[in-house]
Amino acid sequence: MAKPSKDKSSAGFLDRFLEVLYSFFRRFNKLFDRVVFNKAGSLIISLIASLVICIAIDYQDIRIELFNDTTTVVDLGNVNTEINLDQNKYEVSGIPSSVQVTLSGEETDIEVYQKQHPNLTVKADLSQYKEGSYIIDLALEDIPSTIKASISPATVTATITSKRTRVFSVAPEILIGAGQKASDFKTPTLSVNSVTIRSTADELNAIRFVRAIVDVSGFTSGNSAKVNANVVAYDADGNRVQVEIDPTTIEATVEREDTE
Q1: Arch. (CATH architecture) of 71-162
Q2: Terminal-residue alpha carbon distance, the chain
Q3: DSSP code of residue 256
């Protein structure tokens, strides 16, 4: 019995394959026509196409952002704080004198910002507050949106206290130098005998005496001299009380004791 040739077998397979392929495309064509020429189908295709385009664009943006990221971080260290409040009327506690600041963003943006603000400070805006304690945010001045600032601490509890004034009498106190004795000099005469001190009520109440420090260490010749004496307030333990004093210095006249 004769065997079918390989050529005839191959031709039969190819014919069947082409017939199946043709049938598939014919059915796909009919389905495509139904969808495209149908209003709902057209909307679905448009939506799918839009989503594909959006995903493609977003992918490009993400890829560019990931592989072309030039973000840098600059540690500014300790930056001084600045309190926005009338400190002639109020005293503020709870705000540190400096805070840690770090900037992140494009290197060129940070460089421009630093050049524009050579004396950079962190603001504590208390202009809208009166007496009391408040939690406030600290912020850099004029920070652009392209730069992210990290401040530590970022929030603080500020206590605002009204200042008051009181008049205190002041007495001279001699400050002698090497080889001198207090008994070598008469009690200095002050040009004024009282001063006005401004501070909080607690600090004013803590003051027990006020002295004008008359430094006679440079008084080495002559019988009398005039000296500008610094005025200092002290508490009951003799510790200096940090307050605003007006005037801060008083003219004192010093005379030597008559040794004859």
Answers
A1: Beta Complex (2.170)
A2: 163
A3: B
